[in-house]
Amino acid sequence: MSLDISGSPYELFADWFQEAQQKESADPNAMALATATVGGMPSVRMVLLKGWSEKGFVFYTNLESRKGVELHDNPNVALCFHWKSLEKQIRIEGPVELVDEAQADAYFNSRPRDSQIGAWASKQSRPYEQADALAQRFESYRAKFSTLETIPRPPFWSGYIVKPDLFEFWVNHVNRLHERIEYKRVEDEWSGGWIYP
Predict the structure, then answer these.
(1) Nearest CA to 144 among 121, 111, 128?
(2) How far are the Cα atoms of 120, 121, 141, 147 from residue 144, in angstroms, in the given order?
(3) pTM, whole model, 2 decimals?
(4) How far apart are CA 86 and CA 88, in angstroms?
(5) Of 10, 30, 70, 174, which has the fewest beta carbons less than 10 angstroms from its beta carbon?
(6) What's residue 128's pLDDT?
(7) pLDDT tens-place string over residues 94-146
């Protein structure tokens, strides 16, 4: 086996993510985010990782979107990074928490102005009746904020931090002899080992 399980899962994530940033041509920070309702009905979509540390993995969204509602009602999630060019995949499971207001403000302020306006304009996950409704809302908010140097962060828009309880690292090999290692959190320690593919 080529993978070393003696270190922390964060060290291995850092190595793989750095490699992905160098070799993956499109959005190496893209990750599938799986949420579920209280009743267990799952949904999954791609989001972008916007920061990470040993405290967790951060993404941002509309809190009133489907995923925002599901995260409020059931704060347990799964993430999946899949890098086709590397033939590697990482799965992460754990609960989420909202980032603090200062962190959400800082990230929102770093976004392009039109992206900030778009956050105000979109009633994410809700239906609309006419094709140009979003464009009309966007232009309305653009006019509303035209005299402001700084656009405020919407009260319904923030970030979440995923706090891992489990990591799984997967490497593709021929004949389906893939390599998988799993780390589980036991209190404040990580226990790692190989699992069959």
Answers:
(1) 121
(2) 11, 11, 5, 8
(3) 0.93
(4) 5
(5) 174
(6) 85
(7) 999 999 999 999 999 999 999 999 999 999 988 888 889 999 999 999 999 99
Q: Is residue 1 part of a domain?
A: no
Catalytic residue among 111, 176, 180, 185: 176
Residue 2 lies in a domain: no
Q: What is the span of the domain harbouring residue 97? A: 9-195
Q: CATH number of the domain at 120, please.
A: 2.30.110.10
> What is the total count of domains within the chain?
1
44 belongs to a structural domain = yes
pLDDT band (50, 70, 90) for residue 6: confident
On whether residue 4 sits in a domain, the answer given is: no
